[in-house]
Amino acid sequence: MEKLTFGWEEWVSLPDLGLPAMKAKVDTGARTSALHAHDIEVFGSAKNPKVRFNVHPIAGREDMAITCSAPLVDRREVTSSNGEAEQRYVISSTLAVNGQSWPIEITLTNRAGMSSRMLLGRQALSDHISISPTERHLQPELSYDDYHSSALKRRAPKRALRIAVLSREDNYSTRRLTEVGEARGHVVEVIDTTRCYMAINNLAPEVHYDGKRLPRYDAVIPRIGASITPYGTAVIRQFEAIGTYCVNGSAGITASRDKLHAHQVLATRRIGMPSTAFAASPKDTSNLMALVGTAPLIVKLLESTQGKGVVLAETKKAAESVIDAFRGLRANFLVQDFVKEAAGEDIRCLVIAGKVVAAMKRTGAEGDFRSNLHRGGSAKVVRITREERETAVKAARAFNLGKAGVDLLRSSTGPKVLEVNSSPGFEGIEKASGKDIVGKLYDEIETRVRPQPVRKRKS
């Protein structure tokens, strides 16, 4: 390495933490380096602990904070220059100066009263560094403008994230979300939605779980079952109020779960779907059916899932009987045109971040018009048309869903959206397509929670 000379203050960067430019005071009297940090929080397992914290990299700019995380190396007592002892968390990171870099240990502490956001102690000064204590900025000057540039987001490291999966089930999808996240170095915690409770106030909204306040999560992945939609979306709204990134928002889940609401949203966006009619208690069943077309017809409960509560009425008489039965149960239902040319098949498009990442054709079990895999249907990968791809993306976007399963029917007049599922399973489509769908979801999460460019303050 080329020998470097440091003055008493130098520009440095910490690329592992996403901090491209910082002023550091060089203090050979101090053994350990220190970084100004706040909101320090330990997470992860006892065998592999991590620490997350926020850094104000520019003195006097409390409006700008960069969230960092790093493996936790130690916790030790450090005595400051004024003789005060403090227990500090210790991390390891890379220090970069003038094209050279090397690993150093850093303690995390509050340096709010210091002009330098960082202190470099003896341990950080390698053998090839000499000190000129009467000078400063002997190494190339860096720019705080890097914090305002879109390049900050592109260059930001893939730091360890703390992620909550809201799920009550130990199934393939939940296990995959946990396994893939942990394989990427993140900490993934599965939270039973029904065991969450909320402290609702205007200053500090909180979510509690099993007697404790839940920590700040970088992201929440909702997998809310249909039976607990109202409570589950209330929990998600609470995370949204805190400012946590939720892959699917509460409003989109609520709208997609109510089939009447969902079809109204699709109609508003002029997205193709089967002709649909709804009434609370029509006196004239024949008129209701006439709004849709002739038999055969589909009669569907508003909150049906996995093909349950969906009936094919092959004749007008059969449709009248089913409608009368549902009405007798005071159940809310839709009447839809049956797309004959679909022939018991539909296409499930998995949309993540506005892109169709996989598609499969689902075929119903013999004698069953429903193609749901939960009801014995089969699936195989399928090539979709440009129109089908655009329709699926448009449908997911209509509900502002970061991940969605969009079910399409192939009709003689183009693709028809049958349903937009806000909690699609991953097993069928991963096995059919051979793609790492969960990995693509984590790609989007990692992108969304990286440091965001900060606008310059107006002068």
TrEMBL record:
Biological process according to GO: SOS response; translation
UniProt keywords, alphabetically: ATP-binding, Ligase, Magnesium, Manganese, Metal-binding, Nucleotide-binding, Protein biosynthesis, Ribonucleoprotein, Ribosomal protein
Cofactor: Mn(2+); Mg(2+)
Pfam families xrefs: RimK (PF08443), Rimk_N (PF18030), Zn_protease (PF05618)
A Gene Ontology term for the protein's cellular component: cytoplasm
Tagged with keyword Transmembrane: no
Molecular function terms, GO-annotated: ATP binding; metal ion binding; ribosomal S6-glutamic acid ligase activity
Domain ATP-grasp: 263-446
Signal peptide start-end: none
Coiled coil: none
PROSITE patterns with a match to the protein in the record: ATP_GRASP
Family per similarity comment: In the C-terminal section; belongs to the RimK family.
PANTHER family per the UniProt record, alphabetical: RIBOSOMAL PROTEIN BS6--L-GLUTAMATE LIGASE, RIBOSOMAL PROTEIN S6 MODIFICATION PROTEIN
Protein name: Probable alpha-L-glutamate ligase
